[in-house]
Amino acid sequence: MIEVLTSLKAPLMIPMHYFSTYTLDRFISRIRQQWDVELAEVPTVVLSKHTLPAKPKLLVLPGR
Length: 64
Prior knowledge:
globular
């Protein structure tokens, strides 16, 4: 999955579907080697083209 995300060259990735906290934590630990990771405290985010990060970033929003 990391290879696919890297090839997309998107400035921001937000994981939407994961099976457990274990799989999410495992993914985060791997992606953190290449990208910045932010764990948001609220389940919402407002984005615009001007606020996208310059360096690729993974933004994890809290689930229910």
